[in-house]
Design brief:
Elements lengths: L1 H19 L11 H24 L1
């Protein structure tokens, strides 16, 4: 049960970082396939940023 609560905080931090630090407010493209591509790119950028900070 405690693990489930911690996961909620971890996910919330990721979305907060994407919204605030990467200035993501809304999707630019329309259509499910295009939105999936857009969120994929955003999460890829977030993960690359995490890896970069972990290395340096």
């Amino acid at each position: 049960m405690a693990h489930r609560k911690q996961r909620c905080w971890d996910v919330e931090a990721v979305f907060g970082n994407i919204k605030h630090n990467m200035n993501f407010k809304r999707f630019v493209l329309r259509g499910l396939e295009k939105v999936e591509t857009e969120i994929g790119r955003i999460t890829m950028a977030h993960n690359l940023k995490k890896v970069t900070f972990a290395i340096f």
